[in-house]
Write a structure and sequence with these properties.
The complex is a heterodimer of chains A (213) and B (579). Chain A has 213 residues and is of the alpha+beta class. Chain A contains seven helices and twelve strands. The radius of gyration of chain B is 22 Å and the shape is globular. The chains are: A alpha+beta (213), B alpha+beta (579). The complex binds iron/sulfur cluster.
């Protein structure tokens, strides 16, 4: 099942006030290897996983229930989106249903969840108990979920180390650049060909990346 | 499938073939057949490489029919690696070919005379056995090249590489795929050594003149098979995840769970996991000439989880390595390069080695300081040592447990002498229960058939109660044993779990084929019968509850990042076989 809802307005337009790269690219799923490697998202204050996905990013309803079948927060398998709490330092991974007994075991609310009891999330801390400061959440999008949600997350904008981003671009085949129509770094246009990537003046540290078609 | 081919390798003048009616073994196939023959005909206290052991090769009950994803071939014997009963299965084209020719089993038995190696040719006209010393010590790919001009590429070959001929405890039996490559392996338990001990290098099966097996009730069969395929196609795992990424889609997720055994099971996460992921694997294959991320290991598989891996220049390297292989040679050894893993996979297939056992053995050798963790070239050289039978290679070829013993190490991740697969039992304890108690030694597929809630094996289980682990593991093992008898690939399990109508369609397909009216209860009864025979055999071979344990260090050494140990009590493990 692909994610089909409309893209919402980005909830954080400033993206941490980092240098901002804007790419016009019409096949965001081709970024999925970057998204499996992990990136950061700005979060205004601690919230539940459902609040993060649905209210901030815009991943709601049927897709969340049917396709995002395997979720890890800080390495713990998540069964309940409404009790899983996102807070400073959190690491989130989203995946589709996985094969095999291990896959069945990891599934949200799955029949075999007892088999991974030691690594299931138990904490019922509330967002109310947390300081209301903004922070950055580590996110990893895997497999089908990465392909389906690439457009939405990249539309919201992600924060990534420049070195990872450059490495990702350097490993892309020509096909990736066929879908790239324009590139801007902090409002300055850059050439969008494969050969030009090496000369892009990327910052030394992190950058904000937003992709739209 | 109404006949059995027996090959007496000790007959005067060379191996002799006898074809007999299926008799008492009627209705058996796959693991049900291999287990029953070994249970009835092999003395449990025999030496696995001695004349009393037998090698039973059996297509699943549905193999050779038009039923989707039903081409699994089972091989059974007493295992040289574990000393227990063994069933090891693979895809490839041979099960369909044997099924179409009407063979419910091929049994290699008796005492080999002399050092000659033989090849067996089976077609619709009968069986021919010839001396084949020109094939001696050929690795599997070279063997296939040599057979090609004689038999063409449409036949199926079941063969051993050099490891099987040298009777290593880690040695597989290869089965050719639709491209006539020896890529599918009955890997676990050293079954290749038993074939080697019988002096049979290969069986060439030509079913080109044999028709597909016809169902007793064609209409019902066709309709239920259609529904079964529809169910497989519409499910997220069997219709999308597996065809797109293959089984290696699990790397990222197991790593995230902290259950990805790294550096010989010392850590639960590997920092370079992304460089080994199924996502990268699929993308690489799409971008390389000749690469194919979606491919069936035999014709008629609706899932198609296998694939073809090519190098940067588009040359064939190996099949798409599976999750267990990428893990065993990759993260477990600290090797983070998919091309190096592909090379190791090719060498394992060529020499005829189980990739799980070989990767874990190399991990143990790395721990012993033979080579460094992360040394891909060193690992490749070690596999060559095994394939060529050097003194070091012979130690490694005996498996992870023996290697650890030779180097004076406690840290051998094995149960009953067999290497653990790619899931750390400290993170996923339920899988640990299955590793400990399986009749086969540490085996991930023993608890793979995740349909127990539908099957209601042993009544309704509440998986959240304390004793849930043992009950779940038992039920999984029963369901798996039953599925292993049918010839259906274990990967159908996910669609069956989620979609009761797909499970019914599968049972109805069997009913349509055989004109039966089986229900889920009959499937459960078959699974229980198989497990009981296996357990009884093991008991007589000297295995008791004290062998159903994980190595102690899994209860002593916490695994990062969750710092968990395996703490399921022994009493709980002992309950698994209370049925
Ligand atoms: S699902 Fe994969 S292993 Fe199973 S039969 Fe199909 S291709 Fe072979």
């Amino acid at each position: 099942m692909s994610y089909t809802a409309d893209f919402p307005e980005p909830y954080d337009k400033a993206l941490g006030n980092l240098p901002l790269m804007l790419m016009r690219h019409d096949a965001p799923e081709l970024f999925s290897l970057l998204l499996q490697g992990g990136f950061l998202m700005p979060v205004p204050e601690p919230c539940t996983l459902r609040e993060f996905l649905c209210e901030l990013v815009g991943v709601c309803g049927v897709y969340t229930e049917k396709t995002i079948q395997t979720i890890f927060l800080d390495g713990l398998a998540i069964d309940d989106l409404d009790t899983a709490l996102i807070r400073p330092g959190s690491r989130l991974a989203l995946s589709a249903a996985m094969p095999g007994l291990a896959g069945a075991t990891m599934r949200r609310g799955g029949y075999y969840r007892k088999m991974r009891e030691g690594i299931s999330q138990r904490s019922l801390e509330s967002a109310q108990d947390q300081a209301k400061d903004p922070f950055r959440l580590q996110v990893r999008l895997y497999n089908m979920v990465g392909r389906d949600l690439a457009g939405l997350f990249l539309h919201q904008g992600i924060l990534t180390p420049s070195s990872d981003f450059r490495q990702f671009l350097m490993s892309q085949p020509q096909k990736f650049f066929d879908h790239l129509h324009a590139v801007e770094l902090d409002g300055v246009s850059l050439p969008s060909t494969q050969e030009s990537v090496g000369s892009w003046p990327l910052p030394d540290e992190d950058l904000g990346l937003r992709v739209a078609d | 499938m109404d006949k059995i081919l027996r090959i007496d390798v000790g007959a005067q003048g060379g191996p002799k073939a006898t074809v007999e009616p299926v008799g008492d073994y009627a209705g058996m196939g796959g693991r049900a057949m291999t287990t029953m023959v070994v249970f009835k005909e092999v003395p449990p206290d025999c030496h696995p490489l001695g004349p009393e052991n037998k090698l039973v090769i059996s297509p699943g009950l549905m193999s050779g029919s038009a039923a989707s994803s039903s081409g699994r071939l089972s091989v059974g014997c007493k295992s040289p690696l574990t000393g227990t009963i063994k069933e090891s299965n693979a895809g490839g084209t041979a099960a369909q070919a044997l099924g179409r020719l009407g063979y419910a089993a091929v049994i290699l038995e008796g005492e080999r005379q002399g050092d000659d190696m033989y090849k067996v040719f089976i077609d619709d006209q009968g069986v021919k056995i010839e001396k084949a010393n020109d094939l001696k010590m050929l690795p599997n790919y070279d063997l296939i090249e040599k057979l090609k001009p004689v038999y063409g590429e449409k036949v199926s070959v079941i063969s051993i590489g050099t490891a099987g001929e040298m009777r290593f405890s880690n040695s597989s039996i290869a089965v050719t795929d639709p491209e006539f490559r020896p890529t599918r392996h009955c890997g676990r338990g050293g079954v290749g050594a038993v074939m080697g001990s019988k002096g049979i290098k290969c069986l060439v099966v030509d079913a080109s003149n044999a028709k597909m097996r016809q169902p007793v009730n064609p209409e019902a069969f066709k309709e239920s098979n259609r529904k079964f395929v529809e169910g497989l196609k519409q499910h997220a795992v069997t219709g999308q995840g597996l065809p797109t990424y293959g089984t290696n889609v699990l790397t990222n997720v197991l790593n995230e769970a902290g259950g990805y055994p790294t550096y010989n099971f010392r850590e639960g996460r590997y920092k370079h996991h992304q460089t080994l992921s199924g996502e990268l694997q699929a993308e690489t294959m799409k971008n390389r000439e000749g690469g194919q991320p979606t491919h069936g290991c035999h014709r008629g598989c609706a899932i198609q989880c296998s694939g073809i891996w090519t190098d940067k220049d588009g040359n064939y390297m190996t099949k798409q390595p599976e999750y267990e292989t990428v893990w065993s040679h990759g993260g477990n050894c600290g090797i983070s390069d998919l091309d190096a893993v592909a090379k190791l996979d090719y060498l394992d297939d060529n020499y005829g080695l189980d990739t799980i056992e070989m990767g874990v053995t190399i991990g143990v050798a790395m721990e012993a300081g033979v080579i460094e963790f992360g040394d891909a070239e060193g690992a490749i050289n070690l596999v060559h040592e095994v394939g060529k039978g050097t003194p070091l290679g012979r130690i490694l070829g005996a498996g992870a447990a023996t290697t650890a013993r030779c180097y004076g190490l406690e840290r051998a991740p094995v149960v009953k002498g067999q290497a653990m697969p790619a899931y750390d039992p400290r993170s996923v304890k339920g899988i640990g229960v299955t590793y400990a108690t399986s009749t086969m030694g540490a085996d991930h597929t023993a608890g793979y058939a995740v349909a127990t809630n539908i099957l209601k094996v042993g009544g309704d289980v509440d998986p959240l109660k304390v004793e849930g682990q043992a009950e779940l593991s038992r039920n999984l093992q029963v369901a798996t044993a039953a599925l292993d008898a049918t010839g259906f690939c274990l990967f159908v399990a996910f669609a069956i779990l989620d979609q009761p109508e797909t499970f019914s369609a599968m049972v109805e397909t069997i009913n349509g084929m055989y004109g039966l009216s089986m229900t889920g209860d009959d499937v459960v009864a078959l699974g229980q019968k198989i497990l009981k025979m296996e357990q009884e055999f093991n008991k007589k071979a000297g295995f008791g509850p004290e062998h159903d344990r994980l190595p102690r260090y899994f209860s002593r050494e916490p695994l990062t990042p969750h710092n968990v140990v395996f703490d399921v009590p022994s009493e709980e493990l002992d309950k698994v076989y209370n049925f």
